[in-house]
Automatic annotation (TrEMBL):
This is Polysaccharide deacetylase family protein. It comes from Halosimplex litoreum. Residues 133-343 form the NodB homology domain. It is found in: Secreted. SUPFAM superfamilies: Glycoside hydrolase/deacetylase. One of its GO terms (biological process) is carbohydrate metabolic process. Keywords: Signal. GO terms for molecular function: hydrolase activity, acting on carbon-nitrogen (but not peptide) bonds. PROSITE patterns: NODB (PS51677). GO terms for cellular component: extracellular region. Pfam families: Polysacc_deac_1. Coiled coil: none annotated. PANTHER family: POLY-BETA-1,6-N-ACETYL-D-GLUCOSAMINE N-DEACETYLASE, PTHR34216. InterPro entries: Glyco_hydro/deAcase_b/a-brl, NODB_dom, Polysacch_Deacetylase.
Amino acid sequence: MDGSVAGDAERTVSGPQSAHLRAGATDSRARIARRFERPIDISDMGIRLSARANRSINPYVQVFDVDGNKINFRAPIRGGLSFQPFDFGISKVGGSPDLSAVEEIRITVWAGEGQAVDVWCDDLALVERSETGTVVVQFDDGNLTDYSEAFPVLEEHGFTASTFVCPGSIGADGKLGLSELSELRDAGWDVASHTVDHEHLSALDEAAQEAQIAGAKDWLVDHGFERGAEYLVYPFGEYDQTTLNLADRYHELSFAGGYPGYGRPTNRHVIQRVSSPDVETATRAIDIAAAYDGITVLFYHQLTANSEPTRSAFASTMSHLADRESNGDLRVVPARDLESIVV
Ligand SMILES: [Zn+2]
């Protein structure tokens, strides 16, 4: 064992104590392992862990089958918050793991970068997966290419998406205007909130955060986007405790960065998404959704001949998604359909 593990009776979600993992600046990792005398079946289950950390970190929950095949589950834990439940996505599959015969589960924290980290873990739980693989496509920042590039590609496959816009830049150069937004909405897209001005929310006080969040929601409702107004994406994926409280007051679902393939979300205001994936990353994230009945949210920014990924890479990814959907391996749904599968 590197690092250290100790019980902490001061900080708990359930039961008398949490586990405090500390990976020191020179320790590579801290770990808790649990071996089962008889293998357990978690094939229909996702992983949720309640955790807090003194700085932002992506811990692992590693699951090993009886033959040593494994899945690494991961979630980004924002530093400095109180305990939050995090729904863990799938970052890596080693071999062909048999989730009906799991022998060991480990929680591992890697410090890295010469900086110590403290993580408190509590209440590791198995959560039902959805009935089938589920993929959601989203766009941030209200770029005109959502309309000019992505919309025709998605329409060809019969998919809809969400566009998260900042009311402070509607109709600006290179951004979507009201007429494009209305057309996207009429075609089934969710026109949703990315706050008024795309500020770093956790750098703002509560009143300023509320102005950014409530102001964007009001704008959406006032302009006929009531349905999309229920959904929020945190600018830069950044949030703090105040942000989470406001998100809960004004929105049904809120999205942040992270991993693909998680089970039914238990934390409706930290729903993970895969950022601007190239074809290889997106294909893997889509195939994980199909293989594990997981939820995968992909999000993109501007799509041009030079963007990363490019518009043609985006089109290739959507072709793969369409192939998997027409095979019956997964379904492609708008953000609002996630509401019904939140636990
Ligand atoms: Zn953004």
